[in-house]
Specification:
12 helices, binds thymidine-5'-diphosphate, alpha/beta, about 15% strand, about 350 residues, about 40% helix, 13 strands, two-stranded parallel ribbon, globular, UDP-galactose 4-epimerase, domain 1, binds nicotinamide-adenine-dinucleotide, Rossmann fold, 7-stranded parallel β-sheet
């Protein structure tokens, strides 16, 4: 029987890239994707794979205990790769409830389902894995120097990062208490195709094409460590296949940039690649400093030496390659962006593939 991976949140940014990666790189595995299709979940991200024989989509909520329990037994799940989450810091500030529900309760329900199925029904094998995809934001905010290691104490400062930290603690507790075969990854900021345009890079790319203001929070000197999403997907598979049970792995791009650097670079790339703004103004002229995010973490930087040393993973893409591919992808997929912004991707998907909200079997 082929190895079956339950991916949660596979219609979101990283999840969709991951499903795509698995179906290409592990052609003998089966992928079951459960996604609630919140505002951030987009079936069009995987439209070309909808009929792939190794892929099944389930429209559902990870907080639905009966559904999640049923998925484990119906598909004989060997591994879980858990992406589903509310993921945007700004939304967690204005409306934290959904973050507590999905990120904490949802993770708890998945852990219980895995425990019931693998341990309760003696279905656990040497290959059973529960891989929890988390963020570097659980470690808090760095000053100008230093790096987050796997030993850095947790110090989350937004409702988003606090909810992810809670879920990380639950996952570790299930390893120590019940012997559930868990793995954790804490990754830095991702960029690449299919990212919802509320996040910095796609938001700036969209606004800069349309000649709209480019909002930079505070002084623009906050630092993030950017990683191309395909490198993240590869790291997750490496951890899934070779990681030490109960262990966590920090994943990062060795690529620190201020927000202002990122925005200026995107402006310059667009100036080179597409028609100039009216009056030939450089796109940098659209930069607008706006009120800072409350509790805005100053700097994130990952020490990824453990995953490199123990599992031999390093990012394959340089930032220059990754950002060039990303800009080209958004330029070539303007209809994707338009669909995301006006919600029409759902209608587009249904017109092409029917209203498939049930398991394809
Ligand atoms: P995203 O917001 O783009 O996608 C989240 C997906 O989860 C969506 O498809 C959404 O519909 C789905 N979802 C939300 N609530 C659900 C629920 N209750 N049940 C089922 N599905 C639900 O997020 P992303 O940027 O792809 O992030 C994926 C994971 O990676 C998250 O756990 C996030 O914390 C983590 N992460 C993200 C980054 C980053 O830079 N984006 C970095 C490190 C870690
Ligand atoms: P974001 O993409 O929301 O990721 P995160 O908050 O998880 O790091 O933001 C990346 C950085 O860009 C963060 O420091 C906030 C900043 N930012 C802006 O300056 N302007 C914006 O419009 C957005 C969305 C983010």
């Amino acid at each position: 029987m082929s190895y079956t991976v339950l991916v949660t949140g596979g219609c979101g940014f990283i999840g969709a890239n991951f499903v795509r990666y698995l179906l290409t790189e592990r052609p003998d595995w089966r992928v079951v994707n459960i996604d609630k299709l919140t505002y951030a979940g987009n079936q069009a991200n995987l439209a070309d794979l909808a009929d792939h024989p190794a892929y099944s989509f389930v429209h559902g909520d990870i907080c639905d205990e009966a559904l999640v329990n049923d998925l484990f037994s119906r598909h004989n799940v060997h591994a879980v790769v858990h992406f589903a989450a509310e993921s945007h810091v700004d939304r967690s500030i204005t409306g934290p409830d959904a973050f507590i529900r999905t990120n904490i309760n949802g993770t708890f329900i998945l852990l219980e389902a895995a425990r019931n199925y693998w341990l309760g029904q003696q279905r656990q094998t040497d290959a059973s894995r529960f891989l929890h995809v988390s963020t570097d934001e659980v470690f808090g905010s760095l000053g100008p120097t230093g790096y987050f290691t796997e030993e850095t104490p947790y110090d989350p400062r937004s409702p988003y990062s606090a909810s992810k930290a809670s879920s990380d603690h639950l996952v570790r507790a299930y390893f120590h208490t019940y012997g559930l075969p868990v793995l954790l990854t804490n990754c830095s900021n991702n960029y690449g195709p299919y990212q919802f345009p509320e996040k910095l890079i796609p938001l700036i790319l969209n606004n800069a094409q349309e000649g709209k203001a480019l909002p930079i929070y505070g002084d623009g000197k906050n630092v993030r460590d950017w990683l191309y999403v395909v490198d993240h997907c590869e790291a997750i598979v490496r951890v899934l296949e070779q990681g030490a049970l109960g262990g966590s792995y920090n994943i990062g791009g060795h690529n620190e940039k201020t927000n202002l650097d990122i925005v200026e670079l995107l402006c310059d790339l667009l100036d080179k690649k597409i028609a100039p703004l009216p009056g030939n103004a450089p796109r940098r002229s659209l930069i607008t400093f706006v009120r800072d995010r409350p509790g805005h973490d100053r700097r994130y930087a990952i020490d990824a030496s453990k995953i490199e040393r123990e599992l031999g993973w390093r990012p394959k893409y340089t930032f220059e390659q990754g950002i060039e591919e990303t800009v080209d992808w958004y330029l070539a997929n303007r209809s994707w962006m338009a669909g995301v912004l006006n919600g029409s991707y759902q209608k587009y998907y249904e017109s092409m593939y029917g209203a498939r909200t049930e398991d394809k079997e």
